Structures are given as C-alpha cells and as structure tokens.
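Q: Joint fold for the lines below.
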Amino acid sequence: MPGSWLHPLAWGFVFVGMTNSSAFAGTARSTLDDLIGPARMQRLATARPLGDAIVLEGLAKTYPDGTEAVRGISLRVAAGESFGILGPNGAGKSTTIGMLSTLVKPTAGRATVAGFDVVAEPTEVRRRIGFAMQQAGVDDFATPKELMILQGRLHGLRKHEAAARAGLLLGVMELAEEADRRLATLSGGIKRRVDLAASLMHLPAVLFLDEPTEGLDPRSRSGVWDTLDRLRSRLGITLVLTTHYMEEGDRLCERIAIIDRGTVVGQGAPAALKATVGGDTTLEDVYLHYTGRPLDDTRVAA
Amino acid sequence: MNAPAQVLLLAQRALVQFPRNPILLGFSVMPVLIMYLVFGGLFEGVAELPGFPTDNYFEYLAPTAILLATVPGVGNAGVALAADFQNGYFHKLLTTPTSVGAVMLGRLLGDCVRLAVQAGLVLLLAIALGAEVATGVPGALLMIVMGTLLGIVTFGAISANLAIRTRDAAAVQAIQPMAFLLIFLTSAYQSSDQIDSGVLRTIIELNPAEHVLRPMRELMLSGYDWGDIGIGFLAIAALAAVALPLTARNYRSAYS
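A: Joint structure:
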C-alpha cells in the first residue's frame, strides 16, 4: 500500500496532545517538547517508519524553451533522514525540489514521495509534505497566526486544532510576539521563520527546505537548525534541503548530493565525501572538487 | 477537508485581505462615487430631453455606477492574485492538498461578495440623492447580482489571466482603465435612441455589457422585463463560457 511506511498512529498521538494543551497561554515559552509531547516519544520511536521516504528514478525536466534543468537524477532518501542538495547556480536544485513538491512537472523519469507518485498522486503527496520556500511564501496582509491557521485548516485540521498548533509553533519558533502583527510589517528573516512554521502545521512526514536559513541572523539560524534537528530526531520527519551554507550541510545533513548541470556528481555522508577528496578537507573543498568552482562564485541558489 | 470548505476558507481570506489595504479599498470605491456625483451633476440636463426615460438623471445613471463599481473594481482581484504570485504565496497554497480550482473559486467568491457590497454602497448613494428603485429591494438585489457577475466574467477573467501570465501586479493595474471602455461603449450615459452615430449605435448593440445594463436600467426605472433579464443572463453565460475555461486552463499552467 502506498505510503504504508507512514506512522498515522504516531501523528494521532501528537494531534491529541495539541488539542489538550493550553496553546496560546503557553506560546511565549513553548518548546518543541510542548509540540510533540515527551511522553509519547517512546511510542513514536517504535512507530518510526522504515524504508525510503523519497525515490527518484531518472527524474528529468526539460522546459519548453529546451533548457535541460535536470537530466535524469536517481536518488533515494530514507525515512527520517536529513538530506542536503548542494550545487552551483542553475544546477537544478530548485527544479528538483520543485518536482518533488509537485509544483514542477517532470518530463521524464519518476519520483515518489512518502510512497506516492508525484505526477499520478500529487494530492496525496501534498498531504504529507511541507515546503519552506527560498522566497518566503506568505500573505503580507495576514498575521502569522492567521496564515498558520489557514495553512493548518487547508491541511484538514479543525479550527481549534489549527489554533492550538499555531500557538505552539509560534512559541517554538520564537514568534509569539509577532503572532498578531501584519506580515507586511515584519522583516524578511521573520517572514522566513513564519513560512517554516506554517510548513510544519500539519506535522508533515517530509519537509522540503529551499535555502532554509538564507537571510537569517546567526542566532536565528542556529535556532532553526536546532528546531529542525529535533523535529527530525523526535518526529522522524524526513528533511530535504538545499543550501549554500557548508556549515548548514555539515550540521544538518546525514547525506549530501552535489548536483551540477542537472546531474548528481557526488553523494554520500559529509565525512565520506570529505574522505574522497582526502587530507584535512572541508565540505567546501569537496564542493570545489566535484563542481570545479568555489562556492563563492555560486552564492545564490539555483 | 472537502473542496467547498476550502473554497469558503480562501474566500474568507480574500475578504479579510481587502479592507486591510486602505489604498486599494479607497481607490476601488471613491472614484465611482465621485464619478457618479460629477457625471450626474454635469449631465443632469440630459434628463430633460424629449423621450428620455426618466426626469431624474441620477436614477438613469445608477445602474451605470453599479457597473463602474463592479467591472473596473474586480481588477483588484487580479492585482491581489499577481501579488500572491510575486510573494510566493500562490505556490505555497499549491503545496497544500487544495486544488487549483478551489484557489480560483475562493478568490472569485470573495470578490463577488466584495463587489456586491461596493455596488450596494453606490446604490445607497443614489437613493440618498433622491433616486428610487422601481422594483424595490428585490430588483436592487438583482441589479447588484447582474453587475457583479458581469464584472467577474469580463474584467475579472481578463485581470486574473493577465496576473497568471505576467505574475506582475503593475501589469494588471496598467490595463485597469480598459475596463471603462466596456462601460463607456454602452448606453451608460445617454439613451442609445438619442445617439446620432449609427456606427456607435451598432458598437453598443454588439457590446454584451449593453445587454446586461439594459435590464438593469429597466429594473431601476420601470419594472421587470423578464425577456431582457433573460438576455442579460444569457450574455453573462456566453462570456462565462469563454472566460472560465480559459482562466482554469491558465491556472493549471501555474504548475510548470
């Protein structure tokens, strides 16, 4: 059965936890433990999914103007894994993540996310994914709380569930003070955190992050990393992120794929990739080795 | 969550969004009210011409003012849609289990309510200036419905398609004055019998907006002419038959 590796029982425990909590009362000091419920972690651990969360087989995208953005990528990302995609401008990172999130239609090959085909079963895929985009996708006329509640409602949460979940996530993301301010008045960094929080409203099985900490100050960046780390380790969320911060790749990703000109030129655990280059290397050296150019030349993500 | 519930949620979002933009709110209502007052005052004497259907020009002009509120006014929906594209929110919505159709209908429904309220405000101003609706409240509501639907299937569709294609709010705003042409090329300000130019009369007859405006004016001035009302709704249906599939097709192109 497609998607059978998911853990609906575990999510069910989390949802019940949400509805029973005094959500907004505790927003100022909410932690991830409030969101998840520490007592349920043991059950979550036993229900943790096994197998591949994401499978790409010869996935390709050629745009109508003939541009071959992705040229037959094959990858597997295990459930609960944190997977990074690195590559220079135009390498095909964003197109790949776009195809996996059902926003871009592949022209060849196939991909499944959470056990569902991205072309044949896009709605089932969308039920199971969150996507924090490179450009924070927020409605400037809404408040963070309203935006998150709408996001939760569109994912099928009841009104009080969505409100409770939004309250907790605003606390987790240290956004409680901004909860009722119009997004138009908030900084780009805060909007990105709101976007990320909104992407988590339905506690997705797979979370796509396109340059998740671009534009954030070091403290916020560290906070986001910490939150993502714990989401993954405690809820078994599969993370797929593009980044040009080598430190981010090292810190968050268990495995990395380096993409260049629409194909995977190297993949593996950061330590294993470093070992292929040899000596006392950094991830930046690995990047240079596989793409032939330094990261600074390719700052903006493709 | 089922599709109708998603549509209602997104309509609610569109409605909440609008009053939070005071500039948009002001500029979609105030010019219509000002035009109504200015044109009504300037051309008041037209009502004294022999054969003019009423001696109160503000009454004659009220259905025109409703169209001025709904047809150019609906362009703001296209602007809002383009803004959603520009700030990435449209694609954020597409990563939820919401269908493109629900996103489209939600916006449409929200805008229908907004346009109906704007048209109602214009009609209230007309009544305050001494105009009377011959068919009473039911006729007034029917006028508002017809005006709103015409706005949605004409300039609403044009601005939405332009928003999807260009994803640029400024481009959508730039074509907004074109909406006035649709209204000006009708018997909006003068009975077509009193227009000398045969060419202009032919253009007016060919303009679908004229066939919606005519029964609206009858509702305002004389009574129910179900034949003309039927023709009005047929004109709206014909426009919708072209506009809605085209818009739906363009919406689907949001997935590249």
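Q: Anything notable?
A: The radius of gyration of chain B is 19 Å. Chain B has a mean pLDDT of 88.
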